[in-house]
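Please go through the protein record below and explain what the tokens say about the fold. Record follows.
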Amino acid sequence: MAKLPQMADTDLDAVISFLRSDHPLVAADPTPDVPSQPSLLTKLLCQVAWKPFPLPTKEILRPTGEDPVALGKYLAINLDCFSCHSADFKTNNYLEPESSPGYFAGGNQPLDHQGRVMNTPNLTPDKATGIGNWTEAQFIRAVKYGEKEGETALVFPMIPYVQLTDEEVGAIFRYLQTIPAIEQQVERSVYD
């Protein structure tokens, strides 16, 4: 489940409007709901370990394209890129993502459809182990179309983000170029 405590009010309004729309993707299903019956332990953990994030105290504005680095940071956090591309889901800091251990240095291990570990790559500007030698055009091509010279750039659970504009993906790239470079070689997960 996505954890997006820093989503802009306008984007949150758009999500709610879509969920309330007549779009077929969100049409009501006539199947009756089965009431959930959480155990006492689940209820306790929801109050202690899995507490909800605090509600914002002021309006959260969405950055514009006039500041591509700020827009890139906003997108990289709210598209949950940092969550997979940091050290571990268990140590991610969703309220202050930049404080997450291994922020964008990769090494996290989500699973693919077959339950196999998929190591996430280093997206810091480190020239030896990250994307420090990539061009913005290469990054856009990889993120939007899953293509990299001579090989597939993306493997599930990462999917191509074709719905993003070149400007949005370019903004993410520009933001990633501003974060601290972390030298961390991550072995690429390749399965036949």
Notes: The CA atoms of residues 144 and 161 lie 5 Å apart. The longest strand covers residues 147-148.
